[in-house]
């Protein structure tokens, strides 16, 4: 790999993700572009190997994109580089740097920290540093750039990105809502990229072979005309393997947009649906203002009329929420037919206003991802129980491994939440772990739990579990159904 004066780097959560922020910085670097190289890693990489790779490029400046999922790893990497190559200038940016008044410890190892959108601030800083000038202020607060003049980032996607990874694209920045748990609460308004050039970029990506698009827009269905235009664009060009991921507010989905979504092939649309809490009290406390009844009606309509894959979030630990509220939300989503339900713990993101809403009685882990440990409504033990619930929900429900067996589980209790909670407690008592559970083991445990309920003929139950397990080709494990 050739050397470069400037390295833009980060650690993605997994290989299939791409560092979209670095692509934008590289495309915005102007005359410095030839001196700049993007180098991406994953959070599974060893910090010493990352440092060795970066140092081998002989950079003068390294810019790190720091996120909640990689801050611990990159802190180690930065410490290594600072120790063995103190002359290299280190610049930090990304969501973890959003709060200039309380940056994470990694900021202490940096020469400069950029808060905000860095497409203009980073190239300006890099040019000064390469010229031998050292700005006096370490913390650089970058104002939002004009979206009309930002260079197109999409040519920075490589052929490997296009064919092996999810491509992040954005048609807007900002969010109209002020949810206290989210960094988007800090943004004052929604800004849109000019539509015609954006669609031209999407057309170029499609022609290059791109098939998996993940829109980073915080509320895709905010502006009706833009939504219609973007959906029409893809409908006119839809290839058989197209996947489009949008984040939507379900209570704001119009009848015409719903009708348009129904025109897409099955599984072409992946819709991330914001719910978070079904409690009106909690909704008010966090500044969300969502019509839950209408949201559930929209979810039902999407399941009834479209082939979209629906993903919805519930957050444990929000102010005003109780365990009963989380349970009720889970039940509503299961009964509405949502295919993926992410039950996540509240995180205290740097700069997000949630701390002021919660007060001093909630406790958070000081290490990333800064998850809640206890609140006035949830003890530490209850939080950990919900964490296990979330993990087992991924394994049994969200991954779609047992589509025929899960309805049998719902029959074992009055509500889906009660049924799944009983399975989780039973499974934890026997396994004492939430990871490294092979699918065959999960299938066997599910059979054992259901068989103990004495609600179904054991032979037919075994056939149902076995069929689910074998529904994908290549599974050769022998299931020991009925054994303890």
Descriptive report:
The protein has 484 residues and is an alpha/beta fold. It has three domains: 6-141, 3-Layer(aba) Sandwich (Rossmann fold), CATH 3.40.50.2300; 157-378, pyruvate-formate lyase- activating enzyme (Alpha-Beta Horseshoe); 400-484, no CATH class. 38% of the residues lie in helices and 15% in strands. The chain contains 17 helices and 16 strands. A six-stranded parallel β-sheet has the order 2-1-3-4-5-6, with helices on both faces. Helix 2 (47-55) crosses helix 3 and helix 7 runs parallel beside helix 8. The model has no long low-confidence stretch (mean pLDDT 93).
Please summarize what this structure is.
The chain has 484 residues and is of the alpha/beta class. It has 17 helices and 16 strands.
Write the layout of secondary structure elements.
Layout: E1 6-12, H1 20-27, E2 36-42, H2 47-55, E3 61-65, H3 71-84, E4 89-93, E5 112-115, H4 121-130, E6 139-141, H5 159-164, E7 167-169, E8 172-173, E9 191-192, H6 195-208, E10 212-215, H7 224-235, E11 243-248, H8 255-261, E12 269-276, H9 280-285, H10 292-305, E13 309-316, H11 323-336, E14 340-345, H12 354-358, E15 363-364, E16 372-374, H13 380-398, H14 406-410, H15 416-431, H16 439-452, H17 458-469
Parallel strand pairs: 1-2, 1-3, 3-4, 4-5, 5-6, 7-10, 10-11, 11-12, 12-13, 13-14
Antiparallel strand pairs: 8-9, 15-16
Helix pairs in contact: 2-3, 7-8, 13-15, 16-17
């Amino acid at each position: 790999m050739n050397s470069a004066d400037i390295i833009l780097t980060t650690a993605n959560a997994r290989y299939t993700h791409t560092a979209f922020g670095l692509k934008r910085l590289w495309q915005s670097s102007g005359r410095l572009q030839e001196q700049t190289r993007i180098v991406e890693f994953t959070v599974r990489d060893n910090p010493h190997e990352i440092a060795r790779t970066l140092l081998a490029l002989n950079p003068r400046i390294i810019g790190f994109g720091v996120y909640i999922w990689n801050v611990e790893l990159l802190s180690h990497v930065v410490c290594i580089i600072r120790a063995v190559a103190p002359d290299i200038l280190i610049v930090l940016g990304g969501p973890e740097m959003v709060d200039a008044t309380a940056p994470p410890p990694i900021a202490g190892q940096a020469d400069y920290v950029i808060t905000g959108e860095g497409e203009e601030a980073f190239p300006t800083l890099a040019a000064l540093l390469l010229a031998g000038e050292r700005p006096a202020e370490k913390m650089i607060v970058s104002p939002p750039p004009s979206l009309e003049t930002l260079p197109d980032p999409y040519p920075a996607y490589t052929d490997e990105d296009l064919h092996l990874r999810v491509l992040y694209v954005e048609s807007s920045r900002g969010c109209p809502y002020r949810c206290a748990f989210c960094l988007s609460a800090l943004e004052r308004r929604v800004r849109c990229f000019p539509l015609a050039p954006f669609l031209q970029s999407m057309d170029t990506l499609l022609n290059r072979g791109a098939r998996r698009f993940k829109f980073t827009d915080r509320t895709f269905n905010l502006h009706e005309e833009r939504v219609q235009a973007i959906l029409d664009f893809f409908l006119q060009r839809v290839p058989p393997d197209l996947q489009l991921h949008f984040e939507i507010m379900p209570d704001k989905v119009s009848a015409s947009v719903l009708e348009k979504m129904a025109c897409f092939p099955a599984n072409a649309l992946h819709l991330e649906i914001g719910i978070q809490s079904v409690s009106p009290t909690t909704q008010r406390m966090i500044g969300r203002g969502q019509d839950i009844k209408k949201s559930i009606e929209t979810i039902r309509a999407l399941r009834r009329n479209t082939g979209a894959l629906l993903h919805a979030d519930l957050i444990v630990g929000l102010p005003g929420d109780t365990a009963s509220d989380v349970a009720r939300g889970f039940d509503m989503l299961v009964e509405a037919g949502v295919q993926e339900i992410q039950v996540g713990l509240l995180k205290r993101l740097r700069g997000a206003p949630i701390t002021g809403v919660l007060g001093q009685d909630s406790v958070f882990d000081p290490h990333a991802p800064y998850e809640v440990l206890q609140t006035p409504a949830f003890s530490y033990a209850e939080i950990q129980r919900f964490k296990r619930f979330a993990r087992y929900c991924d394994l049994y429900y969200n991954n779609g491994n047992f589509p025929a067996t899960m309805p049998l589980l719902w029959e074992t209790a009055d509500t889906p939440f009660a049924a799944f909670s009983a399975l989780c407690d039973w499974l934890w008592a026997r396994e004492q772990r939430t990871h490294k559970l092979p699918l065959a083991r999960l299938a066997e445990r599910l059979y054992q739990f259901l068989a103990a309920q004495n609600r179904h003929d054991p032979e037919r139950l075994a056939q149902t579990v076995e069929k689910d397990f074998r529904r994908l080709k290549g599974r050769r494990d022998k299931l020991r159904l009925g054994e303890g």
